[in-house]
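Forgive a beginner's question, but would it be possible to get a protein, spelled out as residues, together with the matching structure tokens, please?
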Amino acid sequence: MAWRLPAQLATTPAGLANHRPLSFRHTLSPSRLVSSVSGNDDRAYVELWRRRCHVQPLVKCTAQAAPATAVNLAPGTPVRPTSILVVGATGTLGRQIVRRALDEGYDVRCLVRPRPAPADFLRDWGATVVNADLSKPETIPATLVGIHTVIDCATGRPEEPIKTVDWEGKVALIQCAKAMGIQKFVFFSIHNCDKHPEVPLMEIKNCTEQFLQDSGINHITIRLCGFMQGLIGQYAVPILEEKSVWGTDAPTRIAYMDTQDIARLTFIALRNEKINGKLLTFAGPRAWTTQEVITLCERLAGQDANVTTVPVSVLRLTRQVTRWFEWTNDVADRLAFSEVLTSDIVFSIPMTETYDLLGVDPKDIVTLEKYLQDYFTNILKKLKDLKAQSKQTDIYF
């Protein structure tokens, strides 16, 4: 099934219709093929698979785009190289990208979905906020006017189908960027996404990498392993609040990285013309298992964690059950990703060559021990101060 821009956008501006969006096809074993479904009717094919298939399909993709010639629609005011658009600016990584860009003197525009609570903190920092939605391609072109570089940090919300933003939206964004002559595009992907086609999110990331490569846009792709910030809500806060900490029995190792370091390295790469068109992977100094992270948090918090272990076999069973029902397919897609994270895999990569290429001293990269130590030191100090203030107000008459 191929996902395309609406006709009114795909025909203007010129050149947009020349792109061929990625196409996904779910491949089943010969015994699962249904002769009554036409090979061209992908939607009916996928629907029949959802109802009848008991096995996880492979998701395959092909990517074709227009030639790599730059689009120059008409002469006009030159675009400043410092003008950037950050997509997904309110996310864990996106807000650090915005903060770093502003600190380094860039003119930052943030693409933000319309929301009940406006992203005032971005305006307070000095960024310009524009409302648009990747799931509505007609809202994208206006956000790109006057922009030199697009930095894409966006990802779909947990309650959304994975393909809505991470696939359809990204294809529309890249097509619009190509048609409007964007000079550089930075895309954040997932480490080893090309090795797990059975996981929809990782296959989508891999296919988007291919599509961006074939689009001809001057670009940098950065694969990430994991964010240190994500460990605060997952482990640190539950331990401090004496709530359950959820983990698995798998020996997966992940080289978490501070998003502030990711943002800093991203802008170093952005200014290095030798890195144009390259695929980089950012990984933290060390890969950690879930149990090692929990043990570290326990030591820094000074208290034991109430750990609830979920066997990987339970995740696999849950994923198979949710595949039976159309309304739970999105849940199954996300469980597929979590299952990879709970398998015997190391999400890390040696960073020596990358540090040399970027001219970065490894000693300047924050370790997980340092990051969590700073967090627990600050939070425990605040808790101690609040407790002292509370005692001072305990006055009885």
